[in-house]
């Protein structure tokens, strides 16, 4: 299915769609909030809809159940929760590392990163952004990055070539590049291991839901993470040891997760079929 979809067309149509939306809304004098919502709709709804609809209309025998099914996901759910917690812990530690590097030379930039995120568009805007972050983005990005890009780049290079290139592209679109890159590798391996996009979608949704929760609930309400999460300039130094420990432990766990998921996968560049799902005893 995804092997027939041209990744370059998807990239081109997405760029053109976003640029066209920006131009139209600038010409009509729309405010920044309205323009941002319009761009998000173009990026996550309009362009993906027409791209995938084009290929589905040409192939009426295709079925979503080929890549999206609830069958066999139950034994994976505890593992997905653990992977999300490890991913978030690593990203938080990397955030501390970035602040520790830039704060001595550019304290104003570190303060900017630590400043609370303001939502200027009111309640309606917040609901839309939550819908995008927790529902739309995980579904669309998994179909695009783990579906189209991973499959196409695997066909042109190798299994790991496809995983690394698609994950690099995924990382470029996120502020937390390293964390997003590793997240992309795990999501790719989940799909390759099971042949089911629902698992990386759930992985993505849970990760984004916890990230969204942290935006609306003060971090001091989460006593389990308050001891290492950085929220002020003073925390950069006072919580350094805790973040180093979290970084080392989460990095080792991430490496183990990647090894566990990759174990047994065929690294043949000509491999066209996704491997069969693991049995319940084999799932992490």
UniProtKB/TrEMBL annotation:
Signal peptide region: none
Domain CAAX prenyl protease 2/Lysostaphin resistance protein A-like, first and last residues per copy: 127-210
InterPro entries, A to Z: Rce1/LyrA-like_dom
Regions that span the bilayer: 9-31, 37-56, 76-107, 127-149, 161-191, 197-219, 240-259
Gene Ontology MF term list: endopeptidase activity; metallopeptidase activity
GO biological process, one term: CAAX-box protein maturation
Keywords assigned: Hydrolase, Membrane, Metalloprotease, Protease, Transmembrane, Transmembrane helix
Pfam families assigned: Rce1-like
Protein name (record): CPBP family intramembrane metalloprotease
Organism: Planococcus maritimus
